[in-house]
Design goal:
Number of helices of chain A: 9
Distance between the termini of chain B: 29 Å
Largest sheet of chain B: 3 strands, parallel
Oligomer: heterodimer
Structural class of chain A: mainly alpha
Radius of gyration of chain A: 18 Å
Largest sheet of chain A: none
Distance between the termini of chain A: 25 Å
Largest interface: A-B, 20 and 30 residues
Shape of chain A: elongated
Helix content of chain A: over 70%
Number of helices of chain B: 5
Number of domains of chain A: 1
Structural class of chain B: alpha/beta
Order of helices and strands of chain B: EHEEEHHHEHEE
Number of strands of chain A: 0
Order of helices and strands of chain A: HHHHHHHHH
Shape of chain B: globular
Radius of gyration of chain B: 17 Å
Helix content of chain B: 25-40%
Strand order of the largest sheet of chain B: 4-5-6
Strand content of chain A: under 5%
């Protein structure tokens, strides 16, 4: 099981380095969103600082959903998924590996940029650690929910918008509790625990639904 | 060897046997390697070669084979498989720079590394020249000598030297 997980993660990371910068789409969107938000909010430091965590979380939520349309569709179209199944390998491990490698290549750069974005929007530097922790705890939920939407639409062309439409409503709860966790200012807040619970729930349900969707696409 | 006209259900039959298609009526029963499979519930790996190669265009030949065989790129078995299909001099070439026939040969190398006694091949000679068809016959003979079996759907004139049963699927049209 672990060797299968390592295989899929290393292969997808290798493919990400050869994807012509696809992995950076989310990061670029994130930077642009924050820059434009900073201009739109104007120079009032106190007002900006108050809503900075919410804006950073909103930007991360949207950015995390970009470039998800090819997460499973490429493997479905080039026959890799068929070969994975006929090789008697686990489809659940495959889904988890794909989502995890997407988290590393697409989400982790956004995570690293987030403290700078928060400071740029006027947030206090002391809030950076709790922001990072909240994104670490809530990140799996965002990527797993997006992955699920990607699996459901894997056989459709140009499914980017459909992915956002499916995952958008489901991302509301991690967004609410993520912002709440940063505003609470402590790791032990109720919002942070609920955020963790949503990620764990997504970890159980996400791969299960993705797996079923991919099996249906193969029929 | 499964034969039949276009649309007679050759690919569907192979996908059902491989466990890729589970929405069918009727029952599939077969005994293989002392393990009983029912309704496509497979209990072992299958050497599958369908219409799609399962190869990543941006990776090299060895990187693709290393992934599917779970072996290091330098592993001698990978070089041996590439040698058997005539691609030893293209080890480091990205798949997208290969011709359709070379990609099919690489897919055959993936099959060799699967070490599965059961091969299911859907039009394995697609895109291959006459040398390529001879290569398939040689690989099938070697596979048979090692105790393996193969279920093949093909329009081409592949003539395996191993004992072969032929099945012809007839197209059923609604009255």
């Amino acid at each position: 099981m672990m060797s299968q997980l390592k295989l899929i993660i290393f292969r997808d990371l290798l493919l990400a380095t050869r994807s012509g910068g696809n992995w950076a789409q989310g990061s670029i969107f994130f930077i642009l969103f924050i820059m434009l938000a900073a201009f739109a909010l104007g120079p009032d430091q106190a007002e900006r600082g108050f809503i900075a965590p919410a804006l950073v979380w909103l930007a991360v939520t949207f950015a995390s959903q970009l470039s998800l349309s090819q997460l499973f569709s490429e493997d479905l179209n080039d026959g890799s998924l068929e070969c994975w199944i006929t090789d008697n390998r686990s489809l659940s491990i495959y889904v988890i590996g794909k989502v995890f490698s997407h988290w590393i290549s697409n989400f982790a750069p956004i995570l690293l940029l987030s403290p700078f974005a928060a400071v740029m929007l006027g947030a206090d530097i002391s809030s950076a650690p709790i922001l990072i922790v909240s994104l670490l705890v809530g990140g799996p939920a965002m990527v797993l929910i997006g992955g699920m939407a990607s699996a459901l639409t894997a056989n459709l062309r140009g499914a980017g918008l459909l992915i956002v439409l499916i995952s958008g409503p489901l991302l509301a709860s991690p967004l609410i509790f993520g912002v709440g966790a940063v505003q609470a200012g402590t790791i032990n807040s109720v919002a942070m625990k609920l955020l963790g619970a949503i990620s764990l729930f997504s970890l159980v349900l996400g791969p299960l639904i993705s797996r079923l969707a991919l099996k249906i696409h193969l029929e | 060897m499964v034969r039949g006209a276009n649309g007679s259900g050759k690919t569907s039959l192979l996908r059902i046997i491989a466990g890729l298609n589970t929405s069918y009526s009727g029952q599939l029963q077969h005994r293989y390697n002392n393990k009983r499979w029912l309704n496509g519930a497979t209990s072992g790996s299958i050497g599958w070669l369908g219409h799609k190669s399962g190869l990543k265009q941006d990776l090299s030949a060895t990187q693709n084979l290393a992934f599917w065989s779970n072996k290091a790129e330098q592993h001698p078995e990978i070089s041996q498989a590439l040698q058997k299909v005539g691609l030893l001099n293209m080890q480091q070439r990205p798949v997208h720079t290969m011709s359709a026939g070379q990609k099919q040969r690489l897919a055959l190398a993936r099959l060799l590394l699967s070490n599965s006694p059961l091969w299911i091949l859907d039009e394995p000679s697609a895109n291959l020249d006459s040398d390529g068809r001879k290569l398939i016959e040689a690989l099938l003979q070697q596979h048979s000598q090692q105790g393996g079996i193969a279920i093949i759907a093909s329009h081409d004139n592949i003539n395996p030297t191993a004992p072969t049963s032929y099945i012809k699927l007839e197209q059923v049209t609604a009255a």
